Amino acid sequence: MSQVEENQVAPVVDENAPSKAALKKAAKEAEKAQKKAEIAKKQAETQPVYVPPKLTLEQMKDAKFGDMPLHQSQPEFTSDNQFTDIKLLTPGPVKIRAYLHNVRATGKSAFTILRQRQFTLQAVFFGEKDMIKYINSVPKESYVEVEGIYKASEQPINSCSISGFELEITRFFAITRAVSMLPLQVEDAARPDSAFEVKDTVFVKPGRDTRFDNRILDLRTPANQSIFKVRMAIQQSFMKFLIEKNFMQITSPKIISGSSEGGADIFSLQYFGQPACLAQSPQLYKQMSIAAGFQRVFEIGPVFRAEKSHTHRHLCEFTGMDIEVEVFQHYHEVLVILDQLMKFIFKNTLETCQEEIDFIRKQFDLKMPPTIEWTEETVIVDFRDGAKWLQEAGYKQSEVEDLNTENERALGKIVKEKFHTDFYILDKFPGSIRPFYTMPDVDDNRFSNSYDMFIRGEEICSGAQRIHDPEYLKERIVAKGINPDTLKDYIDAFRYGCPPHAGAGLGLERIVMLMLGIEDCRQCCLFPRTPERLTP
Ligand code: ATP
Ligand code: MG
Question: What's the CA angle centered on 466, arms 308 and 298, to 5 degrees?
Answer without folding.
Answer: 75
